[in-house]
Fold these 2 entries.
Entry 1:
Amino acid sequence: MYQDRDLWPFKCPECGEEFAKEIGWLKSQRPIIEIKCPGILNPVGPISCSRTLNYRATDFRLVLGQAKAGRYDPYEQTWTRKQRP
Ligand SMILES: [Zn+2]
């Protein structure tokens, strides 16, 4: 769990969309991790969202370390609608 090929969950505070990014990609972003919200994908068509999520790379490393140690579950903290993959 939580290796470079695994996914880390995010939830957009603007539109509420829940999505995930590869941990290896997140680790390569610094000093700020910028993630553009993919928008909401529904059967009628995508609803675009202009929100960009920002995280400090050092903060991400910290929670990633806690997750690896079993002290933090990002899916439980982040996603309400989706199941972990
Ligand atoms: Zn959004």
Entry 2:
Amino acid sequence: MPPQVGIVSLGCPKALVDSELIVTRLRAEGYEISPEYRDADLVVVNTCGFIDEAVAESLESIQEALSENGRVIVTGCLGAKGTLVSDRFPHLLAVTGPHASDEVMQAIHRHLPPEHDPYTSLIPPQGIKLTPGHYAYLKISEGCNHRCSFCIIPSLRGELASRPLHEVMEEAERLIDSGVRELLVISQDTSAYGVDLRYRTGFWKGRPVKTRFLQLTRELGELGAWVRLHYVYPYPHVDEVLPLMAAGKILPYLDVPFQHASPRILRDMRRPARSENTLSRIERWRETCPELTIRSTFIVGFPGESEDDFEALLEFLDRAQLDRVGCFAYSPVEGASANALPDPVPEKIKQERVQRFMTHQAEISAARLQKKIGTLMDVLVDAIEGDTVVARSAADAPEIDGQVLFKGSSGIQAGDMARVKILNADEHDLYAEPVA
Ligand code: SF4
């Protein structure tokens, strides 16, 4: 039997439309609507709070649903009246306000997960992914609270809106159940996760867990897949996740978009965490977790960037010894406040600086890869091409970093883990042989 939901809809036509939306979404996900309390696995009561009579009727309906069924979610106008409903009925599964079909559906998923029937369900439980089956991106928030002068993301996607912790964890668990071996945690500002929710306490597996970067990372690290962190800013609290990396709970990998190193340019870029002492932070990270791989991206030729600013950036590269680096020539984006800055850098100089930057970093990256020769590492297989196995180590994110290549072991396929010994390296990739 598919899961059954009872609906009690009170109030005006606007409330009725909200109920219709909930019913539509329930039916689309394979739930049945039950006309009887006793057959329902839970009941949604959509309330009205307009006049005293409507309030009384709503309270009565909630009481009736609790007595007849016991598992009740309240939504609608009465739910928006402070703690009136939850004070009176402390054992409700959830209470939301009106026009809250997302929250109602989340509460239903939490207390009555949809059933997946491989013969009738139109989509698999993990949703439809465009990545290969063994890795997946896990978006933990939308939007951004920063105002970097070269970026218009906040005006396109709004302020930071973190997803509730249980929702992120449920999605991660579904992905892993479907065969995903690596979760790539993404957002605009991953380390800010939960700031907008004031780090409110969420629940996961019946335990209270704060909606916060460290706590989320810790929980993800318990799921048994590789967890890779992207778009992390060097805030002081990021230091707290390094012990998780050192303990092997999450991958020792940080993608930190530094963008520049000259204090003047960082100020004009209005970068988050620009005043942090980045070099000493990187040093501390490596003391805690010597295996750490740091990936970053930079912009050269930002308005006003002098030769001295650019030299400061090259010096930063020497001192930071980053593993993987991307570099872009600054290009103005319509609507960005940086467009109003004086002293644009001529295109020819921008391109020249990109080349100098990449040549400079290539030596650093190659030297860091050389140090891996002779070591053993676990790799995740991405593809088999002829007799070559194309894999990645903990130090390589898909699409953007390098690969570990070795000659085939029979029977190996994409999504398998393999243990290899590194034999050689170039600027980007490692060459290996499988070991037992
Ligand atoms: S570049 Fe800056 S403003 Fe744009 S999304 Fe990233 S942190 Fe937010």
